[in-house]
From TrEMBL:
<dbReference type="InterPro" id="IPR001392">
    <property type="entry name" value="Clathrin_mu"/>
</dbReference>
<keyword id="KW-0653">Protein transport</keyword>
<dbReference type="GO" id="GO:0030131">
    <property type="term" value="C:clathrin adaptor complex"/>
</dbReference>
<feature type="domain" description="MHD">
    <location>
        <begin position="119"/>
        <end position="238"/>
    </location>
</feature>
<dbReference type="InterPro" id="IPR050431">
    <property type="entry name" value="Adaptor_comp_med_subunit"/>
</dbReference>
<dbReference type="InterPro" id="IPR028565">
    <property type="entry name" value="MHD"/>
</dbReference>
<dbReference type="Pfam" id="PF01217">
    <property type="entry name" value="Clat_adaptor_s"/>
</dbReference>
<dbReference type="GO" id="GO:0006886">
    <property type="term" value="P:intracellular protein transport"/>
</dbReference>
<dbReference type="InterPro" id="IPR036168">
    <property type="entry name" value="AP2_Mu_C_sf"/>
</dbReference>
<dbReference type="GO" id="GO:0012505">
    <property type="term" value="C:endomembrane system"/>
</dbReference>
<keyword id="KW-0813">Transport</keyword>
<dbReference type="Pfam" id="PF00928">
    <property type="entry name" value="Adap_comp_sub"/>
</dbReference>
<protein>
    <recommendedName>
        <fullName>MHD domain-containing protein</fullName>
    </recommendedName>
</protein>
<keyword id="KW-0472">Membrane</keyword>
<dbReference type="InterPro" id="IPR011012">
    <property type="entry name" value="Longin-like_dom_sf"/>
</dbReference>
<dbReference type="GO" id="GO:0016192">
    <property type="term" value="P:vesicle-mediated transport"/>
</dbReference>
<dbReference type="InterPro" id="IPR022775">
    <property type="entry name" value="AP_mu_sigma_su"/>
</dbReference>
Amino acid sequence: MAYDNGVTYMFVQHSNIYLMIASRQNCNAVSLLFFLHRVVDVFKHYFEELEEESLRDNFVVVYELLDEMMDFGYPQYTEARILSEFIKTDAYRMEVTQRPPMAVTNAVSWRSEGLQFKKNEVFLDVIESVNILVNSNGQIVRSDVVGALKMRTYLSGMPECKLGLNDRVLLEAQGRATKGKAIDLEDIKFHQCVRLARFENDRTISFIPPDGSFALMTYRLSTQLSSPLTRFSNGLKA
């Protein structure tokens, strides 16, 4: 992020490509950076590899996508699967769509109607990375865990999914003893499908999931961790 002469520039880098947004107003920087990351995801969905050559060869599709994803400076539709229903590349253009899909105007804009599967399946992966800062004496100065709940859903219709966590806030509100088994979640970020009011009320993650793969939530844990490194070098030899 940079500021110059009354203009704020926010950008993200993917491979050798920089995507940037410029604004003269006091905008929500986090939402704009999140939008840029969604633009990267949509381009990767369409072109497989987001490179300079792929953007140059498909500049017409890029203009169409940007026109649908943002109107008058406001983010609109960022779900690649929904966009692909009415913005098609030449590789799989079969027919001209006379009108946009119903999902664009529905309250649930991230999921198409009428999905049917022979077998309903849900896959949930918990992916965590550990960040540890260690001083020269081998003592841990700072540590945290950054995690994400990633899902793959193949469900028919408009399913209602619920997910519960052993969140310390919920257990204490219910008068239940935690005994060290609860977790303190920080910096929680949900997918747009999650009902935030329901989560604030009873800490239940309730949502109608998109079809396919998506990140349900990301979080951070600030806990004391034992270092996985047991030996440190005090010097380097050439």
